[in-house]
Design a protein that fits this description.
The complex is a heterodimer of chains A (about 325) and B (about 325).
Chain A (H helix, E strand, L loop, with lengths): L1 H23 L4 H6 L9 H22 L4 H16 L17 E4 L5 H11 L39 H15 L5 E6 L7 H11 L5 E7 L8 H4 L5 H7 L3 E6 L3 H9 L9 E6 L22 H10 L7
Parallel strand pairs in A: 1-2, 2-3, 3-5, 4-5
Chain B lengths: L21 H15 L3 E5 L9 H6 L4 E3 L4 H13 L3 E7 H6 L2 H10 L5 E5 L17 H5 L6 E3 L4 H13 L4 E4 L21 E4 L4 E5 L3 H14 L4 E5 L2 E3 L3 H10 L3 E8 L4 H12 L4 E6 L9 H7 L4 H12 L4
Parallel strand pairs in B: 1-2, 1-3, 3-4, 4-6, 5-6, 8-9, 8-11, 11-12
Antiparallel strand pairs in B: 5-10, 7-9
Classes of the chains: A alpha/beta (about 325), B alpha/beta (about 325).
């Protein structure tokens, strides 16, 4: 019986959280529009709020499904918020297949909690759908499926798939003489997959300066820290050696992210690589820099604590 | 044997027929399609000459992508090109294209329903002496289990060209298995490719021979030889591996005394397996499945290996006699 009561409590807490998030999202948009940040009409502080809402949303979804990738959701939230809600991406959620849209490819597809949350915030689908994360027959599969959800460009999950697809899309834009751009977000452990470097060679050979790779350098992969698993540092010179124009940025600094995104391609004729130095589990004290939180599942207590730390009022 | 008279080709014996490499039909058709449709582009993994795309490259340099020796990337690039509104033909030796990039074929093409056409060149054991590393005889079992992926194995140059033209109209991922072993034309000049349809090349109602690719002309030869013994074999070209013509398979099971399949692939999981899966459940009949057994091939030319593994007209004929219980 106690188990059932707990379940009920969690359910109520979850519904409240989601209801709150649905209500809160986009509310400060008008204010933000007045207060401009660099390279975008959205302010860094507003983006910070939005990123934190994405964080809590992703954690709530993972709590609901009992499965997910909290650490990576949290490290990527600021990048995702900046790209979509900072209006870096030229996309139109009302016309998701607009041929001239910028393509964003979520190569680290396991961080679907944050990805779905930002797509919902952008208006691709109703936020209520987030509450069905990984439910039977939900459109929100554990890893994104472009045939089920608007805004998803590529089916990802197995690592090392996004960049080759991004390279192909960049070649398509070139062949068609069109000016849309391709942004690919990869994990850092993901770079251990050789297909990324195959794709990098193609990108530099064809001078694809319409391609922007963002590496979420949170330094932790499923089993351990990346440097303890398979040494990856120094990452930036690797990309430079593969012919990319590389810039490192604090992946949690919205103003810095907006700035670098406003300057792409950072070197004409070269593909861009932005190494976003991030903290896995960012924003949540118990998850920050903690390998176990790669796919840790938050409890309702964790959610309450997270809401406090993210300064989000969830209500009683 | 049969009381029913059957029509059958009385054309020249295969030895007198002109043998042609299907790759020429594929590359010429691809060029013609690129001329007519600006979305058509080609992606290769260094193999410009073995994919016979030198001409394509010089005629359409801006729609030709060479990713180097990098098959995973090659298939992913194909998916990206399709995302950007192009219709990419991703061409490479079938052994590497399938095995090396299997996860990309599954996820980026099949699961994603990307409009990408894979041209698996020099498939089967065409690379003969180069050995099992270069043979592509697992590809049938691998590709046909991937949802949304259409699988076509043309039998001759005419069908290769027709299947290529069809592939441009078809929206969705396709795998075209193209041989380099010279084969005779088995279809008439007015042949039209129809996906999901078996092609009756020889009428008969004693037994049905089902084959695809290079084995079709051999099945026809077997049927001619059997006819001279009074045994009339229906020969079906099963070029449409997936979707398969279930009606034609069931009809063959109901109207003939058994089925012999022949394929230049591992017997496990290929054409024979696909036919057996249908019949075991819906209409079991005696079958013989001719293909490569569960071994890697020894060293030898493609022709030698087909002979070695019993993939010849004579052995198809023997399988028929065995199935019908006829003493040799």
């Amino acid at each position: 019986m106690a188990g059932r009561a707990t379940l009920l409590y969690i359910l109520i807490a979850m519904i409240r959280t989601i209801a709150y998030l649905c209500n809160e999202w986009g509310k400060p948009m008008e204010a933000a529009n007045r207060e401009t940040g660099r390279g975008s009409s959205k302010s860094a502080s507003w983006l910070q709020e939005q990123a934190n809402i994405i964080r809590l949303s992703a954690m709530t979804m993972t709590n609901h499904s009992g499965l997910g990738h909290t650490g990576g959701d949290l490290s990527a939230s600021d990048i995702l918020a900046t790209l979509y809600l900072g209006d870096v991406l030229r996309v139109n959620p009302m016309e998701p297949m607009w041929p001239q849209r910028d393509r964003f490819i979520m190569s680290k597809g396991h961080c679907s909690g944050a990805f779905y949350s930002v797509l919902a915030a952008k208006g691709y689908f109703p936020k209520e759908l987030l509450a069905t994360f990984m439910d039977p027959l939900s459109r929100l599969n554990g890893h994104p499926d472009r045939n089920k959800l608007p805004g998803v460009e590529a089916n990802t999950g197995p690592l090392g798939h996004g960049l080759p697809i991004g390279v192909g899309a960049a070649l398509a834009a070139r062949m068609r003489g069109e000016s849309w751009r391709i942004f690919v977000l990869t994990g850092d452990g993901e770079l251990q997959e050789g297909s990324n470097w195959e794709a990098a060679m193609t990108a530099q050979h064809y001078n694809l300066d319409n391609l922007i790779v963002i590496v979420d350098r949170n330094r932790i992969q499923q089993g351990d820290f990346t440097e303890k698993t398979i040494r990856m540092d120094p990452v930036a010179p690797k990309w430079a050696a593969f012919g990319f124009a590389v810039e490192e940025v604090d992946g949690h600094d919205h103003a810095a992210l907006l700035d670098v995104f406003s300057r792409v391609p950072i070197a004409p004729g070269k593909p861009t690589c932005i190494i976003a130095n991030t903290i896995k589990g960012k924003g949540i004290s118990f998850a920050e820099n903690e390998p176990a939180w790669h796919h840790g599942v938050p409890t309702k207590e964790h959610l309450a604590l997270a809401a406090r730390e993210l300064v989000i009022e969830v209500g009683e | 044997m049969s009381a029913t008279p059957a029509t059958h080709t009385t054309s020249t014996k295969s030895a007198e027929r002109r043998l042609i490499d299907c790759r020429d039909a594929y590359s010429k058709t691809l060029e013609a399609m690129a001329e007519q449709d600006a979305r058509v582009c080609a992606v290769v993994n260094d193999s410009v000459s073995s994919t016979k795309l030198k001409n394509f490259k010089s005629r359409f340099p801006n729609r030709f992508v060479n990713v180097g020796i990098a098959e995973q990337n090659m298939v992913g690039v194909g998916a990206g090109l399709a995302n950007g509104g192009m219709v990419p033909y991703v061409c490479g030796a079938s052994c590497f294209l399938t095995a090396r990039a299997m996860e990309q074929v599954k996820v980026d093409l099949g699961y994603s329903k990307s409009n990408v056409k894979l041209c698996g060149m020099s498939s089967g054991m065409a690379y003969g002496e180069l050995g099992p590393t270069h043979h592509s005889i697992e590809d049938m079992a691998w590709t046909r289990v991937i949802p949304n992926l259409t699988v076509v194995v043309p039998a001759d140059p005419l069908e290769t060209a027709a299947a290529m033209r069809y592939s441009l109209e078809h929206v969705g991922p396709m795998f075209l298995r193209i041989s380099r072993m010279p084969v005779p034309e088995v279809h008439g000049g007015n042949y039209q490719f129809e996906l999901g349809k078996a092609v009756v090349l020889h009428e008969g109602d004693d037994v049905t021979l089902m084959a695809n690719g290079v084995m079709v002309s051999r099945a026809l030869e077997a049927a001619e030889s059997l006819a001279s013994k009074g045994i009339f074999a229906r020969v079906l070209n099963m070029s449409s591996m997936k979707p398969m013509d279930v009606d034609a398979v069931l009809h063959a099971a109901r109207t003939t005394r058994g089925i012999v399949t022949a394929e230049e692939a591992f017997a496990a999981g290929g054409l024979g397996g696909a036919v057996a899966e249908i019949l075991a459940v819906r209409h079991p009949v005696p079958m013989r499945i001719l293909g490569v057994p569960d071994v890697f091939a020894p060293t030898g030319s493609a022709e030698f290996l087909l002979e070695h593994f019993g993939l010849t007209a004579r052995r198809i004929e023997e399988a028929v006699l065995d199935l019908l219980g006829v003493k040799k």
